[in-house]
Fold:
Amino acid sequence: MTPPVVSIVAKSGTGKTTLLEKLIAEMKRRGFRVGAIKHDAHSFSIDHQGKDSWRLTQAGADTMLITSPAKIAMVKQHGNSEPNLDDTVATYCQDVDIVLTEGFKRSSMPKIEVHRRERSATLLCRGEQHDPNLFAVASDEHLELDVPVFDINDTTGLCDLIVKRFLS
Amino acid sequence: MTPPVVSIVAKSGTGKTTLLEKLIAEMKRRGFRVGAIKHDAHSFSIDHQGKDSWRLTQAGADTMLITSPAKIAMVKQHGNSEPNLDDTVATYCQDVDIVLTEGFKRSSMPKIEVHRRERSATLLCRGEQHDPNLFAVASDEHLELDVPVFDINDTTGLCDLIVKRFLS
Structure:
């Protein structure tokens, strides 16, 4: 069973990761198994220089896995064929109840947009283009919109909506 | 297609990771896609404190993925059900030609043992127990054994044998 996916989107610097952290923690408190996927447009580093896992990746391993009784970690090189979000969820997230993502703003997944007045006057999903996948906004100011607007700190309200829409 | 798996085993401190690095690099030079799996009996850390991917794992994500055009990284919590090596290979390594592992000394996968005289006088796979999965030894001293013994630096010879046995 492929789990539902909710994307947290925002203009850069609005605080997507902070909201995502809060939603993950709250969904875990409610007993759900949670997957989190972040898209990074640039190169990212994970792992520590000199560690064995790092050495195996540096040696050229296309797929490097390190496994212990508690967890498994993987670094896999795509070559030039980055899988799309659907495939990533299907491959790695079959064992969670819900997937919360960050940064897939052009995907057609249901979206929550984070808005902070000091960052921008306009919304990504209600600007030049009307994104039909937007189903809620987390904002630090009052907004009149065609979707529910929650206070940016109202993690409970946002999780209530996620559960009602996708996990009931 | 599940790829063949070769395990590099040794007593601790013999230099498994060093040999594994050399084998990965040589197999890559020969054009093979290589998976590497290290078993860590203890807890391991991957990722840097404070990075977004680290924050999502710390927030409680059961599965954390970070994906970019070049690569994907994952940290997945097992709970208390660490998958066995067969399942790990089947799940994560379908897109490589060969998997080289380190530290699965009790598995029934084909094995190369690394031996260094100064580390130990005896072999793990030819000591109290005779491991029938041993098919080669990389050693820094002459040994008379029932399997081929290569010089510990003879990466070419070891890769020739791996290709002949598992990839021809």
